Amino acid sequence: TETERTERIEAATETLGDDVLILGHNYQRREIVEHADFVGDSYELSKRAAESDASHVIFCGVTFMAESADVITDADQSVLLPSMEASCPMAGMAEALQVDAAWDQLTAAAPDADVVPVTYMNSYADLKAFCAEQGGLVCTSSNAADAFEWAFERGDTVLFLPDKHLGENTAHELGMADAVAEWDPWAEGGADAAQAADADVILWDGYCQVHERFREHHVTEVRERYEDVNVVVHPECRREVAAAADVVGSTATICETVADADPGDRWAIGTEIHLANHLDRWHEDVEVVPLCGDACMDCNAMRQIDSNYLTWLLEELVDGTERNRIEVAAREAELAEVALDRMLEL
Ligand code: 13P
Ligand code: SF4
To answer: Which positions in this protein are listed as binding iminosuccinate (predicted)?
Structure first.
């Protein structure tokens, strides 16, 4: 039962003491965030991992987050992911090998185009390493506009990977809405590489299967239902959904928006359902409603982590066995860190 698992998790963490740090992403199940030492977005959690001296960091999130934590922690610290099934589909939509091949197409078709690759944090370490090698950087949804500006100081065109919606919303924020090309290097009849390189921003054809499902009518309906409602959505949502919202912001911004709301305010939350539910529990004086009911906006990757896996991982550690270590190869880690550091210096 959940009570038994809670007792076992507590017993194991007591035995392990400061040797273990449990990090919980905001999109994790309630029974996971309740056992976490820190709860936050991917960026905050990586910073917590880097600041910690714990020998083992248990990252309750998805693979790309655990990889970033491994890149920025010391070599003698291990990062463990409770379930190896927890992989973000969006990160898998831009594999480094694929991007490398597309990059060759682009540079061959438009040799004079000065393209700077910018990858969203939601990507694997080898793609971050590729971006560093090609003079680019990493960004999160909180600093994408700054990352674009950094790139435009060094080149004429941004190739943004993997999330086309974050790329489009950021271009819009910077007043570049018309200077955007969607590019699928393998699409029949699609824009060719030379055409794409004429744009200021080239969008890779990736998306988040959770945030992409929000539609403009969800915003219209919630406004019809609650006259006084405010709407906040994540920038991984489609452009028209972002345009219809009152606030567009990263996971951290969504949390701050609700934390700063006045008692009695009503906020509809356009992001993963677990975060909407946590915000509802954490801020009893604010009326929190999920933007699209609570039926569908559930991240299947995040959901792979449950208290069974957490119990298993901790009890194995108590027995002296490390399971599910996420380790980025040394050369890749070195380059990925360059791309992450460029972001941190923004
Ligand atoms: P954050 O960087 O906001 O934690 O993003 C995680 C995520 O998966 C958004 O869909
Ligand atoms: Fe990936 Fe979307 Fe899930 Fe975030 S919410 S981990 S971007 S699939």
So the answer is: 25, 42, 120-122, 141, 234-236, 251
**pLDDT at res. 177:** 81
Indicate the SS3 state at residue 80.
Answer: strand
| Residue 82 β-bridge partners | none
Atom in ligand 2 nearest the alpha carbon of residue 62: 6
- This model of the complex carries an ipTM of 0.97
Distance 162 CA to ligand 1 centre (A): 13
Instruction: Let me know if 187 is exposed, middle or buried by CB neighbors in 10 A (0-12, 13-18, 19+).
Output: exposed
- Please count the structural domains in the chain: 3
Q: Do 142 and 191 have their domain in common?
A: yes
Q: Is 33 in the pocket of ligand 2 (CB under 6 A)?
A: no
Domain assignment present for residue 11? The answer is: yes
The verdict on residue 249 lying in a domain is yes
The helix (H) or strand (E) run that includes residue 208 is none
Backbone φ/ψ region at 175: left (φ over 0), alpha (ψ -120 to 50), beta: left
Give the residue, by CA position, lying nearest to ligand 1 atom 6. 42
Q: List the chain residues with pLDDT less than 50.
A: none
Residue 182 CA: distances (Å) to CA of 132, 188, 191, 201, 244: 23, 13, 8, 9, 22
82 domain residue, yes or no = yes
Strand segments (E) across 67-166: 78-80, 115-120, 137-139, 157-161
Residue nearest to atom 3 of ligand 1 (CA): 251
CATH number for the domain spanning 201: value is: 3.40.50.10800
Task: Determine the pLDDT at residue 191.
Answer: 59
Atom of ligand 2 nearest to the CA of 211: 2
Residue 233 lies in domain: 211-294
